Please model this.
Amino acid sequence: MRGRARRNREVNAEINITAFMNLMVVLVPFLLIMAVFSQMSILQLNLPAGQTVEQEEENKPPIVLEVLIYGNRLEIVDRQTGPLKIVPNTAEGYDYETLVKTLKAVKNRFPDITAITLLLESTTPYDVLVQTMDSVRVTTQEQDGEEVQAELFPDISIGDAPPDTSNKTSQSTTAQEASA
Model:
């Protein structure tokens, strides 16, 4: 009886890895192809300081650029002197071409300045923020008959825009006209 019990326990089982190998043959190329398309781009942003830092008159830059993003326009502003240009929206949305042209003119006048602050309303869509960041950071220009990318203002800071007072004054004027 002992011999018979031992014979039943010894079973030669082979591991069939064919299905596993088929899975690997399909899965590895798929993962390699997908890895190429899922590249991540990291853009470093400088957030404005919580407290105002007093700068000495000597260290003061000649221009401190800000782009205010409102629902109906973009405003290009020098924090020290005031508005440089107000770019109203077109029928398609924000007018990034005029924004870039104006920033190119500013860059030609102040080539050493690389910092810009984007101030936006809390209701500004994320896509608008990204498109504005792309517009103020890099532009294309022609050099030796070829189009090359040139930096405009790569050091971007983000903050909250001041309340839009031009909308309220136009709304109150419209309300006064309607009541008259």
Notes: Residues 169-180 have pLDDT under 50 and may be disordered. The radius of gyration is 30 Å.
